[in-house]
Amino acid sequence: AAGEAQCLSYTGCNFLRQRLVLATLSGRPLKIRKIRAKEEDPGLRDFEASFIRLIDKVTNGSRIEINQTGTTLYYQPGLLYGGSLEHDCSPSRGIGYYLESLLCLAPFMKHPLKIVLRGVTNDQVDPSVDVLKATALPLLKKFGIDGESLEIKINRRGMPPKGGGEILFSCPVRKVLQPVQFTDPGKIKRIRGTAYSVRVSPQMANRMVESARGILNKFLPDIYIYTDHMKGVNSGKSPGFGMCLTAETINGTILSAELASNPQGQGAAVLPEELGQNCAKLLLEEVYRGGCVDSTNQSLALLLMTLGQRDVSKVLLGPLSPYTIEFLRHLRSFFQIMFKIETKTTEEEHMGGEKVLMTCVGIGFCNLSKTIR
Amino acid sequence: MEEKEKKKHRAKHSGPKAEKKRKRYLNDLGIGDEENARKRNPKAFTVQSAVRMARTFHRTQDLKTKKHHIPVVDRTPLEPPPVVVVVVGPPKVGKSTVIKCLIKNFTRQKLVEIRGPVTIVSGKKRRLTIIECGCDINTMIDLAKVADLVLMLIDASFGFEMETFEFLNICQVHGFPKIMGVLTHLDTFKNNKQLKKTKKKLKHRFWTEVYPGAKLFYLSGMVHGEYQKQEIHNLGRFISVMKFRPLTWQTSHPYVLADRMEELTNPEDVRINPKCDRKISLYGYLRGAHLKNKSQIHMPGVGDFTVSDVSFLPDPCALPEQQKKRSLNEKEKLVYAPLSGVGGIVYDKDAVYIDLGGSHAHEKEEEEARPNQELVQSLISTHSAIDVKMASSKVSLFMDSTPLGSEDVGQEFVMPKEERQVDLKSGRVRRKAVFEDDEKENDDAASDEEDDQEDEEEAVSEHGSDGDDENDAEEESERMLLWEGMAGRRAKRLKTEVPQEEAVNELPAFADSDDDLEVSSEEEGETAPEDSEMEEDEEEEEEEGDVQRTCEDESSVSEFEAANKRAESKQCDMDSEHTETKPQISVHSPKRKAVLTTDSGNCTAEEASESEDENSSLEEGDDEGESHGELEADETNRNGFQQSKAKKADSVRHTKVKTLDTEDDDVENLLREEEEYEEKIDLSADTTGALKWKEDLTQKAAEAFLRQQRSTPNLRKLVYGTAVEDEDQESEGADDELGGLFRVSRPDQASKQKANALDCSKFLVEKPQDWDLEEVMSSIRDCFVTGKWEDDKDAAKLLEEDEELYGDFEDLETGVVHKGKAAAGGEQSGSEEEEEEDEKMSKPEPEEEEKKKERMDKKRKLKEMFDAEYDEGDATYFDDLKEEMHKQAQLNRAEFEDQDDETRVQYEGFRPGMYVRIEIENVPCEFVLNFDPHYPIILGGLGNSEGNVGYVQLRLKKHRWYKKILKTRDPLILSLGWRRFQTIPMFYIEDHNGRQRLLKYTPQHMHCGAAFWGPITPQGTGFLAVQSVSGTTPDFRIAATGVVLDLDKSITIVKKLKLTGFPFKIFKNTCFIKGMFNSQLEVAKFEGAAIRSVSGIRGQIKKALRAPVGAFRATFEDKLLMSDIVFVRTWYPVSIPMFYNPVTSLLKPAGEKGSWSGMKTTGQLRYERGIKLKQNKDSLYKPIVREKRHFNKLHIPKALQKALPFKNKPKNLEKKGKTPKDQWRPAVIREPHEKKISALLSALSTVNNYKIKKAKVKHREQLKEYLKVKQKEDEQKFKRQKEAKKKVYRILGQREKKRQKSSLKGSSKGEKNM
């Protein structure tokens, strides 16, 4: 009889997000065991709990069972619901941690998602909201998820450890996605970026910009880095500064790099000049890796390709990140989809590292939540 | 004899000839055809009205766009599956006869009995699967979902039957396949006129049902129990050229119409428990969309299953190979119908069954089924014994390996099978690629566990001959090539860095990491005595790895030398040699092209967590190289590593190298050339051997392609492993067993650190490159617009080209004439003719050729420009969309075309058109026991989460031909998606404010909503409902149809609930009400709610009272009466019963398959058991007893009386008293005489009266007559007068005119005079 989709079972808390996201999209139940079972402090951490709560918020009818120690999680997905929501993210991870998964789920809701997330907007671990805004949204647009309501708005900036940032993420819903052929990244035509600082001297941002420009100017003259100094209530609860840079090509590919200062009270103080330089170098690294999608969004692009119609999609990526590789494996176990992976060497010598051409046939996913009238 | 009778020639008046003549005649006259008319009279064809023209234009545009369909990507495969032809009709209409005739028509074979689908080759590019559809509604529903073409048989002597209409309606709901009507039994008509009439009548009815102009065939009569040959031939022609439109459901779901079923259950299990769940395999052509392995399917009539295995088989009924001839020869006219036992041969994966049909069936068959024999012959001669064929066929997996025969392969695919291995120490799971021969060896090894040594020897002996070590060699070379690339790149960068000092730490560090990977790794219990050959391999690799490490560290000039030394000394560490020498070469030849490697990032997956540890120890400048090292380690790991170094045997190694030398030409070549390089001995290497190779540039280029080929699977292997991954945890239990006795205690398979590592998507740069250095910077220089562009995109180049094209121009402002550069050819100005002449004259020299090419280019470019300029406006949005779809379709086809089916299947899934074998487990035993091939077996693939259940909301309408209305909460059988199931729907209607209000019954002629608990099916899917699938009724069975609107896990249907209360204290407009609620809390919940009294006074709930419980204060717009009842209207959510019951009609015993009955309605149950409904006494109808009403006397007060006017005053008229006796009048009694007189008088008066009456009548008539005459006269008179008047007026008018004229004249004259 129906309702007996095979339960997938995993161990360990790593890749929790992608597992939950894919389970939700594929409708297959999921069991994760031995979550930090051998550690002193076993079970789910607060940020994971917060993430599960978020998943519960955006879905309807999902069943989540966690055992007493929090080492086992059973998740039976419901249907994605969406609507206007609010969520307080745990300050131990950035909002990016949550937002990345929401980006995967948001196009397939019943009602357009409009969610206010509170927490740490920029930290050193997760992709910051600025980067996701600059890279993930254009990527979504390529798949036909478009419209005025697709936006990420940073209302308040919050730095670790205390956070206090707030963003608004809204996304329209789609029934089907378009297949993409995205194999030519094109040449970088401009570099943009944001240097932000909260609860520190506004001069920090300018210092970062100066040093970053110093490095990037050797490659390209068209560089503009905005300085964003937030004050008062918009500046969150902890001091800090950082920078994110994006390089846009003539074909609309956006590569990004970011760096943030050490959280207050942790590690040595970072000089803004140094940070700016390092960030610029990271961007160059990213350019070296290349591809049509930057390294943080690889998995998002691959997911959207998988969820496309039954057509061939192609995308050229830089080297696959470990996260992406695991994601590919998960895609296979959840959707039985395998990518054709071809390495491409650049013919020219000065075009950076090797690229990977990923090809797949979409599974013909359609948004089962959306109501038709 | 007499010629007089001859007919006269009659000139043609119509037809092409006459037309021609007429035209000629007209032309002679000078009044030609239309075009001439246009010329002759151009004015007549000018625009008369702009508005009209606009309208006509609009109209044509409208008509044009009406024809458009939304373009869809054409996803039909190149070799499509056979077309499913469903022959449907009421019983005894001639379905099987039609099928037999069609088969005979196409294949010249006569099938005696038809069971299940029959696949035939009908043409060069088309196959048909013909299946008969019984009258069971289950069968009709199932087959309507898979049909491409429906042959609808209609008994003309009877007319349409209910089944026909039911089937049509089923088709309409589930996507409308092509439908062709076939009228049979036409020979029963004796009267020709009647026949014609009937045909016409039936045709028109058919047209209204399908579409006007739908094809209807007439099969007139039977000859020897068959239809007429010509008619069947025509029907066949129509079928084989028919085009089909894609149906949404069918194109978006894979499905198989199974034409064969095998049971695979272990007989022992069946013996133990005859009712155990079975494992079966089903065969059939895959249709619709791609099918993935392990996906969910639904078998209508059985249930949901997960595919446990899919494999594709050679096509049993293949289309002929493309040959350029017109028709099929006899050999190609295949028929395949295993369920009907065609040919008596049944293929299995590993066996062929020949159905002998009993001991004596032989002789009989030979005479009867002559054609069959032919088929059998052909089958035996051509395809016979597929397994034999397979056994003889060989597959080579890699370029240079010897082909693998079937003896090497126990499995269907020659595909690396995955073997799960668990390292003994760390408990890490590895997915080992085991080729079948390997496995065999393993088995051997396992069998003689006791002696490892022996095993080893065995393996060694096997080395020389076995194809298996080719694989190894191949693998090695692959890896080697990989290394070449990597090292090459590394060298490029390492020029700047000399991280030599780290070399010392390096080795231990590696060992460390090795421990991580290998020591922790552990062999699976059963495969513990691994074949030694493998071990050797592993060891070698390990060593290589070591060397690798060292070389990475010292990859400098000194390293170069050291490497060479080693190269000389070492024989077996070939791989490392290659990698080491590689950097040198790249240094020497910077022009080297196409360095091919897997990228660094690609390999760090497993080691992501470990890399941190390593990094701490390996302070290597080049992170790329490092991660490659990891890759290497990974690779070795993958191959099922074992730590036991003690078993190393040099001899093994030597043989290995030998084989390598002989087999691998490339390697050998390289080896020979190697000697040109300086050779030195590396002391660090523990073994010695001469390895020589040289980098040959041309060879290198030639091998670029090969390398690409090889590196790709490596990356793939890295991501996916080699074969399909099992579900980890399911096989866990089996893994733990070691020899059945001991349980291996070990940590979790996945290393703990990794499983619980930080979940972060960022791809951190472990070791950033030094971007201050010029070399590093230049490596990405061209990624920017400021860098160098490709030739076809470089603006400067393009400009240059353009200049050549449009060189000559004059600047109008300045008047300067720009001359184009004399393009490479030179003579540009000459006219084309001249050029051509030149071409002719001069010999086609290369230069000339070049010129010509240039010219062509130029022309093409100009044409493109022109096209772009003038054709742009023509392309509509629709065209663009279509073009886009077309492009996508082409890409879809082209992308995996060049790959072999096995790889393709992994990427795409099994594509439609393949003949597949699907294994399914846990099938109810009834399916096998009660198997009846007459009922279609369909495997319908389910999309994502279509296997789940939830609440489904539908838009539903009762079918207009269904006699009853449907009741909420009555079970209903729905056909939705692939499924047929019984469920309990609730009907609702949506109010204007979006509230979904429950309905007790479906509306008669309106849509309503319905919600039920059942399988999730995509929105927009059509469904139909029937109340029962068992038995037959004369009535129309389809109760309702509709479409899915929404899917959810909760619903919001509400029903009305009125709570009543009674006032117990009434103030002015305020009132205390009790009896509505039971507690204060309840009241609090309803504060502010609107309430109403039955008499219509509106009010509001204000606040709860303390006592009595549940009473509250309310205000109203007017004063209430104590007798009033107050109520509040609330909405109560309805819960839907979670009842989902698939119709398992195929599990019923044979002969009863049409009698599935599920849950019964309460009505049915009551009827069957004779239980009367217990009615509420209050709702019974009783005779209405009305009491007589008494009204009191109207009393008017005296004061009022006084004020009233007299006429309204009550009159106090007293009754008259009785008349006294003395005032009574006496009675008169006549005398006889008097009586006579009075009688006579009365008689006379009667006569008189009569006379008067008569006279009156007469007078009236006379008057009428007179009036008529008078009227006539009057009319005439009036006429006369009118005429006279007319005359007079005319005269008067003339006179007037005259006068006017004269006066005008007079005036003008007057003016003149003046």
TrEMBL record, chain A:
Subcellular location as annotated: Nucleus, Nucleolus
Subunit structure: Part of the small subunit (SSU) processome, composed of more than 70 proteins and the RNA chaperone small nucleolar RNA (snoRNA) U3. Interacts with BMS1.
GO biological process terms on file: endonucleolytic cleavage of tricistronic rRNA transcript (SSU-rRNA, 5.8S rRNA, LSU-rRNA); ribosomal small subunit biogenesis
NCBIfam families, per the entry: 18S_RNA_Rcl1p
Domain (RNA 3'-terminal phosphate cyclase): residue spans on this chain: 10-341
This protein's GO CC annotations: nucleolus
One Pfam family named in its UniProt record: RTC
Name of the protein: RNA 3'-terminal phosphate cyclase-like protein
Keyword set includes Nucleus: yes
PANTHER family named among the record's database cross-references: RNA 3' TERMINAL PHOSPHATE CYCLASE (PTHR11096), RNA 3'-TERMINAL PHOSPHATE CYCLASE-LIKE PROTEIN (PTHR11096:SF1)
Single annotated GO MF: RNA endonuclease activity
Residue ranges of every copy of the RNA 3'-terminal phosphate cyclase insert domain listed in the record: 183-287
Keywords: Nucleus, Ribosome biogenesis
Organism of this sequence: Agelaius phoeniceus
Family under the similarity heading: Belongs to the RNA 3'-terminal cyclase family. Type 2 subfamily.
Described function: As part of the small subunit (SSU) processome, it plays a role in 40S-ribosomal-subunit biogenesis in the early pre-rRNA processing steps at sites A0, A1 and A2 that are required for proper maturation of the 18S RNA. Activates BMS1 by promoting GDP/GTP exchange. Does not have cyclase activity.
